[in-house]
Write a structure and sequence with these properties.
The protein has three helices and six strands. The chain is of the alpha+beta class. The radius of gyration is 17 Å and the shape is globular.
Length: 141
């Protein structure tokens, strides 16, 4: 199987605050330390993992539904995760609820979910072997 190398960078700012920069040069504040730096606003690293999984799958869902000429008006993903409370605090289960709006065919939604979750989303492909993964969708008017 062919591979592709990507580079991301992480720079320590102060306390437990970092700036992460993706391979395209986009940056995000990462970390937290409410005791020593209560004004800091950054994404918690383990939450960032959940957001990465949700955004990876949502990206695929939008692309698949658009290619299928589905009139998607809105998409949100709610993620519920269970995490062990002992170090190294791994996630043990992950549940996605895709909330869609538009006159979208339910069969097309199911197919888009299946393709994203089992074939296209690199983050889920990395995470799913180590945890219990489930998903559902809600189609709103």
């Amino acid at each position: 199987m062919e591979t592709k190398t990507k580079e991301v960078k992480l720079e320590w700012l102060r306390s437990r605050m970092f700036v992460g920069t993706d391979h395209l040069g986009t940056s995000i504040a990462i970390g937290y330390d409410q005791e020593s730096d209560p004004a800091s606003k950054a994404v918690n690293p383990s939450d960032l993992l959940l957001l990465a999984a949700a955004s990876c799958s949502a990206y695929d869902m939008v692309q698949i539904l658009e290619k299928g000429k589905q009139p998607l008006e809105d998409l949100k993903v709610e993620v519920q995760a269970k995490q062990n409370q002992e170090a190294p605090y791994p996630y043990v289960s992950l549940h996605f609820n895709y909330i869609l709006k538009g006159d979208v065919d339910p069969e097309k939604i199911q197919r888009a979910m299946q393709l994203s979750e089992d074939k296209y989303c690199s983050v889920l492909a990395t995470l799913k072997p180590g945890l219990d993964f489930t998903s559902e969708y809600t189609l709103e008017d």
